[in-house]
Write a structure and sequence with these properties.
The structure is a homodimer.
Chain A (H helix, E strand, L loop, with lengths): L7 H21 L2 H17 L1 H18 L3 H7 L3 H16 L7 E6 L5 E8 L2 E5 L5 H12 L3 E5 L5 H17 L7 E3 L6 H6 L8 E4 L3 H10 L12 E5 L5 H13 L8 E7 H18 L2 E4 L1 H6 L4 E2 L13 E7 L2 H11 L4 E5 L3 H10 L4 E6 L16 E3 L7 E3 L5 E12 L3
Parallel strand pairs in A: 3-4, 3-6, 4-5, 7-8, 7-12, 8-11, 9-10, 9-11, 12-13
Antiparallel strand pairs in A: 1-2, 2-16, 14-15
Helix pairs in contact in A: 2-5, 2-7, 3-7, 5-6, 6-7, 10-11
Chain lengths: ~425, ~425
């Protein structure tokens, strides 16, 4: 276990080869075998709590010495409660249905053959993430359950914690009779390892970067393999003139204030001009009381004297903070135009009692989650019933919205015949 | 209509912008509008048969002057029958169900919200193809029906034919009240246009190259947007020792000889050693009579005196010709190992009456189509009931196997609530 490896490209090449080999065994592994590996990993983590905390303290001490801020040190820490929740996460993923091998749409064709789809793993998944060490166990579990091998690259500040978790993962895999190389945590903090990981299409089938926007942008632009990514969460609510005022107040307040730092938090509120005077004063009061700053268009500012004038930049900003941009629009069309221009295609919600406008919003807004009369905060793999989530994709290709086990799979066609030939 | 455009990058940028704008209108277009555009295009092609043939003759003359071979000139030619089939193709695509807007899996969650998926277009599709001008109408129709704008780049040798078809497409779109820029056929033969097309992620959502392997490899390696591609079709049949001999003979003969030049044609036959002596002599005779050369492993050559000795290279070759590589293997495991090592992940079929071995083959072979007792020649969008096919993907990401309308779409999540907030 060393932070320095001399020949990174040789090391990463062997990591990749081992992952590809392990992926074949994993694709064939039965549901029972995969589940027993997940439970064995959970048990091993439980048996090694002290070791985990000792290794985590090394990272915390190094982080403090390097001058990491309190928030980062907090994310880095493995408390007993966080170890509990890592263990629970593994058990929950073991309890989920196995997506692999599921056969759908198996139908007879006029020729007599039956054609259907079978769900299969993608192969090898590379995941690049930042400081939280619990992601190591989470990501390993999701890849394992979906029959994929994975190569994990955590933040350098969590190096010792990640290696300790990796040791439990290897141990659990071996106990279940699966190759330990099915989950490899890169054993170096050298940044060149990331560069190698994202440019090995022969060994890595998809990269999932989790972290800040700059990390994700850099990886997307340099990767030579497909990337499942999520850049921004500039989420909108449109309060239609046919909205139920009480629903508008509750849903907007919840979307903005339930948590400020999440990607599905409301950032821009659009209000139909006909209803603005009826809804904004009370909503403004609720938000003001909660300490949320409002940055409004000219009309908003005339209704809400405490609002600050918004600039053009506000419509394109993900605050991740107690700030809300508010704009009055003429009607649904203008709201959809604004959303299609400024949204990051994450999550948008309309508040309306009007059937036709709800139907139009659902069809025409081009975002990964489109809602009616519901809080944007619901955009989440657990809330959607996926059972788990590796991230939220704002792309359209392959996976969109919250990505659970199914997002880590593909399908192949299967054809059943009885000596059928093509005429 | 000119073959030379001075500033390619400026031209392509404006093509891209127009496509992006048109894609918004197309995503919103109703099923009836899209179908009426398809029918209007078909009618316009029918009304302009003479013009199409005149323009096509310019390409044929230029091709003959350039010394194109007979096969290429044949592919280039627009005969009245080929114009008929272009027109029929458009009518068939109009008759297919509209994939866009379909809602699936809409379920209540414990919180009371309903969560489901709605099918949406990808946006703008770039298609790069070679000599056949009928691809222009086909590709335009598939993109239009699936709600996508498209930018088409046909072979330079079909320039005049493609521009003539493009004129009918524009005319049909306008008649239906859709933006003519929803389908743009690049009006230059300059190769720099391809380079620009595959590196505009702001305007192009996916590239589909159709053509020879070298074209596809070049595009995949240079593209900065996702590519749906199909490189090789090295398809296998494994005749298991529990095969029904008659089915083995018929399916193998059909897979190899029904057409030689297609990607789903059989290229390598694997035979279980226990059954080799019972099946190979008769099969060898049938193939020999048909003029198919057999390149066999040592055991094959000892059973079939007319077989030529295969080299290692034969196991990795897509012949697209009356040649078949034949290898004797010990059992199913050795067959799957051979396939996973040498296959291009296109189509593989097992011939067996054994339930467990059929089940194992279906699960463990990692190809886009995996078959039991059926000819590899069935791997085709029409045979699978997709109604149409834009190509066959040997990738795993996003689309796999024959790609029809659905492969040109994505899904978004929709959430229906009644003032629901997240606790």
């Amino acid at each position: 276990m060393s932070e320095t490896i001399l020949d990174i490209s040789k090391y990463m090449n062997s990591v990749g080869q081992q992952a590809r080999t392990a992926s074949r065994a994993l694709a064939r592994a039965s549901t029972a075998t995969k589940n027993s590996a997940l439970i064995a990993i959970a048990t091993d983590l439980d048996n090694n709590r002290e070791q985990l905390i000792t290794e985590n303290r090394k990272d915390l001490a190094a982080g403090a010495a390097k001058g990491l801020d309190a928030a980062l040190l907090d994310r880095l820490e493995l408390t007993p409660a966080r170890i509990d929740s890592m263990i629970e996460g593994l058990q929950q993923i073991a309890a989920l249905p196995d997506p692999i091998g599921e056969i759908t749409n198996l139908k007879y064709r006029p020729t007599g053959i039956q054609v259907g789809n079978m769900r299969v793993p993608l192969g090898v998944i590379g995941i690049i993430y930042e400081s939280r060490p619990n992601v190591t166990a989470d990501a390993a579990a999701l890849c394992l359950k979906s029959g994929n091998a994975c190569v994990l690259r955590g933040g350098s500040e969590a190096f010792h914690s990640n290696q300790a978790i990796a040791a439990s993962v290897r141990c659990g895999l071996e106990q279940a009779g699966l190759p330990a190389d099915a989950v490899q945590v890169i054993a170096t903090t050298d940044r060149a390892a990331v560069g190698a990981l994202i440019t090995m299409p022969d060994y890595i089938d998809v990269i999932i970067p989790r972290g800040g926007k700059s990390l994700i942008e850099r990886i997307s632009s340099e990767a030579r393999v497909p990337v499942i990514k999520h850049l921004d969460g500039i989420c909108h609510i449109y309060i239609d003139d046919d909205a139920d005022i009480e629903k508008a107040l509750q849903v907007t307040f919840n979307s903005k204030t339930q948590r400020y730092g999440t990607c599905n938090t409301l950032e821009t509120l659009l209000v139909a001009e006909e209803i603005a005077e009826s809804v904004l004063p009370e909503l403004g009061g609720m938000l003001h009381e909660k300490g949320v700053e409002i940055r409004g268009c000219a009309t908003t500012c005339s209704i809400l004297p405490k609002a600050v004038a918004a600039t053009e930049e506000d419509w394109d900003t993900e605050y991740l903070a107690p700030i809300l941009a508010v704009r009055i629009v003429k009607d649904l069309d203008e709201a959809i135009d604004h959303i299609n221009r400024h949204s990051s295609q994450h999550t948008e919600s309309i508040i309306t009692e009007n059937y036709s406008k709800a139907r139009c919003f659902l069809r025409e807004v081009d975002s990964s989650s489109v809602m009616v009369n519901a809080s944007t905060r619901f955009a989440d793999g657990f809330e959607y019933g996926l059972g788990a989530e590796i991230g939220i994709s704002t792309d359209k290709f392959h996976a969109r919205g919250p990505v659970g086990l199914e997002g880590l799979t593909s399908v192949k066609y299967i054809v059943l015949g009885d000596g059928h030939i093509r005429k």
